[in-house]
Amino acid sequence: MLQAHLDSQTNAFHRDYLPVGYPHDTQAQVSVVRFMRLLLKHERGLLRNLLLTNFREFNRRVSGPVPRLGDLVVAIDCAMGSRNQLCPVTNIQAACDGTTRIRIAFLRLAVVDYLVNRDAADPMAVWATIDYHLEHVRNQSEVFATLVIEKDRSLFQNRHIDDIPNAELRVPDDVEVHRKMARVARAP
Questions:
Q1: 64 burial via Cβ count (<10 Å: 0-12, 13-18, 19+)
Q2: CA end-to-end span of the chain, whole Å?
Q3: Alpha-carbon distance 1 to 152, whole Å?
Q4: 82 and 166 in one domain?
Q5: Is residue 60 helix, strand or coil?
Q6: Which of 63, 91, 129, 161 is the least crowded, having the fewest Cβ atoms under 10 Å away?
Q7: Sign of dihedral through CA atoms 159, 161, 163, 165?
Q8: C-alpha of 5 from chain center
Q9: What is the pLDDT of residue 119?
Q10: 3-class DSSP state for residue 53?
Q11: For the whole model, what pTM was predicted?
Q12: Considering all CA atoms of the chain, what is the largest pairwise distance in Å, rounded to the nearest integer?
């Protein structure tokens, strides 16, 4: 998708910002793809670290409760979205729609689930696991999204990570989704 966007740019953009010969030269294309992969690797690492705020800190101690979803949205936006400009918290939270909140809540649960519950013999990296889950999530119902948000609220509402049982740190499974669907169907 990003490469298509780059390809659609003007010749002046290609000349000023991309390797000589792009988009027709294969070596120039390979160079751009490698660079995009490197940037993506660093962005994913930053996102992982933000998702793990006060769950697992790198090079420092956990300093407080795991942030609520709204606070996490603001932290992610400040670190990754509006890096070059200050934006009021209310604007950031208003700009983050329900779908984005669900995705962030899901990503946090998936990263935490991977770290706490993974099989040490499983060679899949955290993002490979998340990519697999995201494909599954695309086919899930609204009930799954509701469960993700409910679980995020129940686990991470001003609680310290040491107060949350590891068994609860997992993505909702199909059994939970079907139970919730049955409860919703029975409700008047």
A1: exposed
A2: 45
A3: 31
A4: yes
A5: coil
A6: 63
A7: positive
A8: 22
A9: 67
A10: coil
A11: 0.75
A12: 66
Rama region for 21: left / alpha / beta (φ>0; ψ in -120 to 50; rest):
left
Percent of the chain as helix, strand, coil, to the nearest 5: 65, 0, 35
The letter for the amino acid at 138 is R
- 130 and 96: one domain? yes
Cα 54 → chain centroid: 16
Q: Quickly tell me which residue has 């695309």 as its tokens.
A: 138
- CA torsion sign for 13, 16, 21, 26 is negative
- Tokens 């948000």, located at residue: 149
Nearest to 112 by CA among 156, 79, 144: 156
Please tell me whether residue 121 adopts helix, strand or coil conformation.
coil
Quick one: 43 and 130 in the same domain?
no
Q: With b meaning 16 or more CB within 10 Å and e meaning fewer, what string describes 107-145?
A: bbbbbbbbebeeeeeeeeebbebbeebeeebeebeebbb
User: Which residue matches tokens 């086919």?
Assistant: 139
Per-residue pLDDT tens over the stretch 8-17:
889 898 889 8
Secondary structure (DSSP) of 68-95: PHHHHHHHHIIIIISTTS---HHHHHHH
Is residue 73 located within the same domain as residue 40? no
Rg (CA), the chain: 20
- Residue 130 to residue 104: CA distance in whole angstroms: 12
164-181 tens-digit pLDDT: 999 999 888 888 888 888
